[in-house]
Amino acid sequence: MAAFPLNVISMVENVLHKYDERLDQRLDERLSDTHFASRKAKEASLRRNEAAKWLRNMVGTVGGRDLPAEPSEEDFMAALRNGIILCSALNKIQPGAVPKVVEAPSDADVLPDGKALSVYQYFENVRNFLVALERLGLPTFETSDLEQGGISSRVVNCILALKSYNEGKLITNGLWRYGGNVRASNLIKPVMSKDPEPLKESFSSANSDPSHEHCEEQNKITQEYKPSSEAHNSGLKPASDDEEMVDNEDVEAKQEKCDNVKYNAGEERSSKHLKQLELDQQRKESSEFPKQQDLVEQENEKNKILKQQLLAQIENKRSELLKQQQLIQQENERSMLLKQQELAQLENKRNDLLKQQQLVQQESERSEVWKQQQLAQLENERVELTKQQQIVQQEKERSELLKQQQLAQLENERMQLLEEHQLVQQQKNERINLLKQQLLSQQEKERIQLLKQQQLVEQHKESIQELKSMVYQTKTGMEFLQKKHQEEIIHLGKQLHSIASAASGYQRILEENRKLYNQVQDLKGNIRVYCRVRPCHHNQTSVSNIDEGSISLIIPSKNGKDGKKTFTFNRCFGPNVTQAEVFADTQPLIRSVLDGYNVCIFAYGQTGSGKTHTMSGPNNPTEETVGVNYRALRDLFLISEQRKDTIHYDIRVQMLEIYNETVRDLLSTDEIRNSSLNGINVPDANLVPVQSTADVLSLMDLGFKNRAVSATAMNDRSSRSHSCLTVHVHGKDLTSGKTIRGSIHLVDLAGSERVDKSEVTGDRLKEAQHINKSLAALGDVISSLAQKQQHIPYRNSKLTQLLQDSLGGQAKTLMFVHIAPEQDALVESISTLKFAERVSTIELGAAKVNKDSADVKELKEQIANLKAALAQKDEEAEQFQHPPSSKSDLPVLKSQLSSTTVSSKSGSRKIPRDDSASSLEV
Ligand SMILES: Nc1ncnc2c1ncn2[C@@H]1O[C@H](COP(=O)(O)OP(=O)(O)OP(=O)(O)O)[C@@H](O)[C@H]1O
């Protein structure tokens, strides 16, 4: 839109310019014919030169480089056409008169139409200059006057007026006013960039005829043009609003609409002023050239017609321009659309580019990260390599140092060796010299030493003689010593022999010891009777007193006076005596079994008197309450263990029962045939080897179980049968090789109550009869043994047959007589005690004599002597087992042995069996 006014302006300017050219051409043609023309030209030239000179002085040669000192009219106009020199000169005179002077070269470069812009720029500078002149009240000229064909005289006049103004100002110190024609400054508005003044000025210039008629004619033309222009631009404001339109430069649309109005109406006000100035100028000229006025008036009429023609042409041109403007507008819209499309495409491309840029950026970031990682890794490797290089370097340095040290050391060593070599060489030489000297001195010494050796040989010969005599003496002494040693060895042999004989006598001593021990036991009586009274089951007891060897019973009488009967035995045990105390007196018999004696311990008494309690203990016995059987076997194994170094014992167990004269093996379920009994033993019965007390106890349990089974079947048969536990001992002396046989019967007899009192019949009677018979047979055997009869009735019962080997002359028998203390058992107790006393009295008949006879005293003395001898032999045996280390102990041993031999004479009653002496066979 901005290009449109410029094009129009330029077009109009061209039209006007052509018109002015023709007009000037006509004027020049007319004036050239006259004399006046030459004078005018000359005068104009002078005035122009003056103006040029003054301008050059004002702006300087640099600023006025395009303006020669005496320019031609064309050069003058060309130099001032851009208005720069004019504005600069005016600003020198009146600073700030032209606030903005546009420099042509820079603007011409920017805009495409340089020429149009130059014209515009010229116009703007020139216009501002003219406006400033008007403010100062100075004469002005038309802008077109600067163009070719313009009126240069008006320009020159204007410059000379300005010169006069300057000179006056200098003289009056700024108070001078040009020609007194000072006008109000607001009469003419400053020319702006889009102001339509150029058009108006063009018109003004076209009407710038010197004559006043020409000006009026020009005004008419303007008035004629104005209605048509208003008709064309209907709706626009009238010319009176033109100032407001000029001020509102921002509203472009309004300005465009007002262009035509401004074009037609222009600034009538400014035109009036210009015309006024022109008229003044014309008056001047007309006064100088009055003859020319007529010609001008004629010419003006012609010009009027030409102007009308020109206006018609302008109108045509303008309509064409409008059409072109519409086309241009359409073209602009189309180009706008194209531009928008292009913009959209560009936007898409820009987005694509942005995406690509983002991708590229991401890729670059990723590559940057990768690069950084690579760099870090390379840095690490570099650091590592640096470290390794440092290490290698250090190693190199170290090895270099080592090499140097080694070299230095080698050098030192070499030097030392060299020194040593020199030293050795020196020493060698010295030694050679020394050896030479020594050799000489040694020859002398050897000679002296030879003499000394000869002396020594002499001395040695003497010494050898002395030694020979000493050897002889020593030999003699050795022979004497040999004899002495032989005598001592013989003496020692004798001593050794005596020791050997003493050792061999030890076995004899031991045997004698056993014999003496058993003799002591024999002196106590082969059949010993111990009486034991069990606790009373209720308060009425028949036992009044029990001491160590007697028991007293209360015998009620019919006359109310109770009697008392005392029985004497080897030992009597009251109801509170423990099992251990009862066994204490039994213990020596167990030792006799291992010495080769046969022993029989049996319990006698009526039913319930305590026989089983004594022999086996109560049911579920404890260590304290176990009976004689267990304790006897325990001692048996204990002693055999003590003697295992000298005697090896083989122990076997047999357990039998005799019921109604029938013998039964309790360790077997089979009944033993009676025919097998040979009077002393039961060879068909099981004989079980045992190694310990536990083995015997398990066998006893088995036997008691078998007996209990039978008792269940036969109604408490245990009370009416005899049970017998037999232990057979076979010993072998490990030193002498002799064998020893012994046995012990542990018998729990059946109840001894009499048949008549029990008043039983049938089987019970038969049982009682068998019991009485066997017990009576036992009494008879014991009685026969006591009386030392030729015939001993063992065969009267199975019991005596079974116990035959233990009731013989070489056996030892112990009978426990049991008493029930209750009064209702008194008769049985008395009967039992009488039986036991008979046994005891018969065997211990001597005891009865023991109170008064000399034989008893003699026997007691023998017992004392034997005990002393036994104690002495025990000591000897102890000493023999631990012989004295010195020779001085031997006489003591000899004396002990001699004393033993003496004391052994006393034992003579019974000799234990050995293999040859044993008459018992199993
Ligand atoms: N010295 C004693 N101390 C305590 N109690 C005893 C003693 N003697 C026997 N008794 C008890 O008396 C009761 C009978 O004893 P035991 O059975 O030993 O008599 P017995 O003579 O063996 O009888 P039987 O002939 O019927 O076998 C048992 O209960 C037993 O525990």
UniProtKB/TrEMBL annotation:
Q: Which Pfam family, an example, fits this chain?
A: Kinesin
Q: What sequence ranges are listed for the domain Calponin-homology (CH)?
A: 45-167
Q: Which UniProt keywords apply?
A: ATP-binding, Coiled coil, Microtubule, Motor protein, Nucleotide-binding
What segments bear the compositional bias annotation Polar residues? 220-232
Q: Where is the composition biased (Basic and acidic residues)?
A: 210-219, 251-274
Question: What Gene Ontology biological process does one annotation of this record name?
Answer: microtubule-based movement
Molecular function (GO) terms for this protein are: ATP binding; ATP hydrolysis activity; microtubule binding; microtubule motor activity
Residues annotated as coiled-coil are 296-470
Composition bias type Low complexity, residue spans: 892-906
Q: Where is the composition biased (Acidic residues)?
A: 241-250
> Quick one: a GO cellular component term?
microtubule
Q: Where is this region: Disordered?
A: 193-274, 872-922
Q: List the SMART domains.
A: CH, KISc
Q: What range(s) does the Kinesin motor domain occupy? A: 526-842
- Where, in this chain's numbering, is ATP bound? G605, Q606, T607, G608, S609, G610, K611, T612
Origin: domain of life = Eukaryota
Q: What does the sequence similarity comment in the record state about its family?
A: Belongs to the TRAFAC class myosin-kinesin ATPase superfamily. Kinesin family. KIN-14 subfamily.
Name by which UniProt lists this protein: Kinesin-like protein
Q: What is the lineage of its organism?
A: Eukaryota, Viridiplantae, Streptophyta, Embryophyta, Tracheophyta
